[in-house]
């Protein structure tokens, strides 16, 4: 329980992610003490149950918070779903969290391009030479090809910056 409280004090986590962390810590501790035959799964499940009961773990709240954070950083819906799946969040909970987020995919794509200085945020003399690579970077980030082209082929950086300021108001 102490290890779970210490971990949750530092990081937000889903129940499945905490389960993985605690299993790993418990196995490492048991190996260092040369103890065998203990049922680690039952102990970890008990701790997960207590953490959930005390309100320290809530997968729905974790997913909503993670989606909002990732969207602010310009992550695509595909990338967000993959991140939540890697953290052990149930697919239905992840879908509900993504659907409840108000940020549109287009806005996230613009944020991503601005952060990476792609397309309109790249110096004008370099835009044409780097166009295909910028589109490829957007696609690897999980955005559709059509959306990547729209963002990369968009207006100049000053127009894009003005549009972003208008979106924030």
Q: What's the arrangement of secondary structure elements?
A:
Elements: H1 2-10, H2 15-32, H3 40-53, H4 59-72, H5 77-86, H6 91-100, H7 105-116, H8 124-140, H9 145-152, H10 157-168
Can you characterise this structure?
The chain folds into three domains: 2-53, no CATH class; 59-100; 105-168, no CATH class. It contains ten helices and no strands. The chain has helices at 2-10, 15-32, 40-53, 59-72, 77-86, 91-100, 105-116, 124-140, 145-152, 157-168.
Class based on secondary structure composition and strand pairing: mainly alpha
Mean model confidence by pLDDT: 90
Report the radius of gyration as a whole number of Å. 21 Å
Could you give the count of β-strands? 0
Distance between the termini: 45 Å
Low-confidence parts = none
Query: What is the succession of H and E elements?
Result: HHHHHHHHHH
**Shape label:** elongated
Percentage of residues in helical conformation: over 70%
Beta content: under 5%
Major beta-sheet overview? none
- State the helix count: 10
Number of domains: 3
What key phrases describe this protein's structure?
3 domains; 73% helix; 169 residues
Task: Give a short summary of the structure.
The chain is mostly helical and 169 residues long. Helix content is 73%, strand content 0%. The model has no long low-confidence stretch (mean pLDDT 90).
